[in-house]
Amino acid sequence: NGHWHIDHHRVIGGIPYVHINSASYFWLGAAWRHERLPPGLAKRFPHVSSTAPYTKPLFTILEIDPVKGRFTLRSAAAEWMGPSPAELGRPFAPGEEDFVKPAISALDLAIA
Q1: Structural domain boundaries, residue 92
Q2: For each of the chain's 112 residues, which pLDDT tens digit applies?
Q3: d(Cα 55, Cα 99) in Å, to the nearest integer?
């Protein structure tokens, strides 16, 4: 899953569930708007101020080894473009702040 724009995984009942941060921003919402673009671009793309964009898009390589029964993800990282969600005061549920970062963590997990 990449829809939530987070870097998270967990194993439930032996099945790995992975959120791959496959985007270039985290959605903040209107309450935490922060202008990040020059005025001309901000006018053309008004929704960017409701996001915490990354300095570059993220992608990864997924490798599946059926012989070993494992899969791996390669890591990737960027930086926040301007203040991070935490620096803007956006609240998170306990532990959620660990998943909201401009990165994809490397993984090596067993295939269920």
Answers
A1: 8-23+55-110
A2: 777 889 999 999 999 999 999 789 999 999 999 999 999 999 999 999 999 999 999 999 999 999 999 999 999 999 999 999 999 999 999 988 899 999 999 999 999 7
A3: 18
Domain count, the chain: 1
Q: Classify residue 28: in a domain, yes or no.
A: no
Q: Beta strand pairing status for 15-19 and 25-27?
A: unpaired
Distance (Å, rounded) from C-alpha 112 to C-alpha 104? Answer: 21
**DSSP string covering 13-34, please?**
TTEEEEE---SSEEE--GGG--
HSE (CB half, 13 Å, CA atoms) of 106?
A: 2
Does residue 17 belong to any structural domain of this protein? yes
pTM, two decimals, is 0.87
